[in-house]
Amino acid sequence: MNEPAATRRPRPTMRQVAEAAGVSTMTVSYAYSQPERVSAEAAAKVHEAAQRLGYPGPHPAARSLRRGRVGSLGVVLGERLSYAFDDPQAARFLAGVSDVCAAEGVGLTLVPITGGTSDVQRVAQAAVDGFVVWTTSDDDPVLDAVAETGLPAVIHAGPRRPGIPVIGIDDRAAAAAIGEVAFAGARSPVVLGFPVDRGRVRQLRLGDDVPDARFPVTRHRWEGFREAWTGTGRPAAALRLAVCPVNRLTDGEAFTRELLHDGDPPDAIAAMSDELALGALRAVAAAGLSVPGDVAVTGWDDSDTAAPAGLTTLAQSLREQGAHCARAALGRPAGVPAEHGWRVIQRSTTRPHPG
Questions:
Q1: Which one of 65, 88, 98, 262 is at 20 to 30 Å from 289 when CA atoms are compared?
Q2: Interval 52-88: pLDDT, tens
Q3: Domains in the chain: how many in total?
Q4: Could you tell me the residue range of the domain that residue 226 belongs to?
Q5: What are the start-end ranges of the H helices in 105-207?
Q6: What is the rounded CA–CA span in Å between residue 345 and residue 299?
Q7: In terms of domains, do 285 and 188 share one?
Q8: pLDDT of 180-214, one tens digit each?
């Protein structure tokens, strides 16, 4: 059981250790930070006194101030903290960030965003050497807060801010490519998508009545899907956008179930993530329909569950992108372009594509 705060002894100071060891405060400091500058006899006195007093060593924050660095990289999620563990794509990205942190010997600090007024202050007070910002909305105030710290920063997939690099893929081009596969032979397609703004309102919109999305990932993927559909002369209004509040399998399943019982059920579903697509596949199966005969389905990210499900999807390496972001934020040369590659992986959930 922890000792009550009221009776807890104060942390011994470096000066107290120096007095107990009969040496100068500087000698105590060197014994921990630069042991080669202290004789073996003096070092022994310092460590014996420290052990007797219960002194654990210089406080990490004090060492950081002297070195001019904290030894930790901050990741601004733009989501609730549990998102880092619940969302497979976020987990992959963070795995790449942590790979670099481990290799560089620095810590990883998650800076969750609540949507409240405290977000900006939380970013401003984060004890880190640099920031990696997980994709967020154009109007998210934490972007300016990150820029105002003056620390090195990088944004994954946007939005763009002057002086801050963006690392990711060309979402619009990728969506146009997989959209051609998803919509092959379709008459009434639906895009199962991410939120359009920070309000995260669940909604169904016709393709000619979609508001300008404030999340760049949503905006660019929707633009690419719409381009794939209208590029052959088909009307934008015939393509619908089903906006899911969060990237979760159950959300994709519930929305798809409603669409299938609507008067104009979709015969093709292009999802902005594998989670939403897998939910759609579950709803299609529950409705007794066939894939891809009745409904073609595509995902995005090629997660570990995509191949076993036979899901046609858009492959990208979020782990590599996370590592690239971390290296950039730590000032390490990357040797790769800011725009990463992607490819369409066609499996059994889509119809043959003439191209």
A1: 88
A2: 988 877 654 454 544 457 789 999 987 776 777 788 8
A3: 3
A4: 171-315
A5: 118-124, 141-149, 171-182
A6: 10
A7: yes
A8: 999 999 999 999 999 999 999 999 999 999 999 99
